[in-house]
Please model this.
Amino acid sequence: MNLSSLLLIWYQENKRHLPWRETTDAYTIWVSEIILQQTRVAQGMDYFYRFTQAFPTVQHLAGASETEVLRLWQGLGYYSRARNMHKAAKMVVEQYNGLFPTEYNTLLSLPGIGAYTAAAIASFASNAPYAVVDGNVYRVLSRILGIDTPIDSTEGKKLFSTLAQEHLDKTEPAQYNQAMMDFGAIQCTPQSPRCEDCPFAEQCVAYRTHQTDILPIKSKKTAQRKRFFWYLDIWNDHYTYLGQRTQKDIWQGLYEPLLIEAPLSEIELLQHPTVLALHGEIVHLSPVYKHVLSHQIIEARFVKIHIAQENALLESMQKISDTELNHYPVSRLIDKYRKE
Ligand code: SF4
Model:
């Protein structure tokens, strides 16, 4: 039996019942796909419901403010994806009369939609014959077929998309793509794949040659940059001060307390000109919060400072009462500090 037939049989017995699979509405599928790019299904479900309840249609999303969108996205990370969704929603309303496209190439022209998302939407919404290619597909195909071409090389990317398209069941593209994703998530997992009860056990090259912990191969190790943040959590009675991150960097559009980015010791920080100019009282120094992003490791500490009067240093920041603090989207790092 060929790969796609076996996969579809496996899917009938093992498929996950997910709310975005009960619909062919391209907008809903798009929301679920973008959310699932940065989180596992269990965590993504809650975000999916909150997002689609707040913005049930593309018109609702297009009409929202960027702050509202980021606030709902808070905690998911990769905030540029939320900003791109917002831009794409506006384009759909302006250029496509609010009808979310389902045609592959049109989808590719929208911000934040790459080959994977376009294939997912086109196949799930209109059963168009486009194979999704993501980490699951790289893993499953490289193991079953025994391919050791690095998946992050230009050659590898080309090879795996050709193979994915070749193996796609053109009569059941939506089912096939969903089957591939579930198979990668449930059976052929990155660590400890369930080879003993796998329908591909007899033909899977990686299993037969004991290479499941080697395949797929990645050539480059992503370099991680280390950054040091000192946040000045300044309070004046029931008010605090937040600035918006506007520069092209992580967390663009999110809010944060006054930041000194430098690898300073505690003593150096307390003698820093900005801290001295605040003329405040240091109330608390937090321990180090280590926050790992895909290409960066941030070591952050928070200094809680009470000030008795307004300070010119804070003029460019927003003065926010403690009751309104939750309206402002912040990074997961700041959220964690606040909760603790
Ligand atoms: S036999 Fe193991 S490695 Fe091969 S496809 Fe099945 S689960 Fe994946």
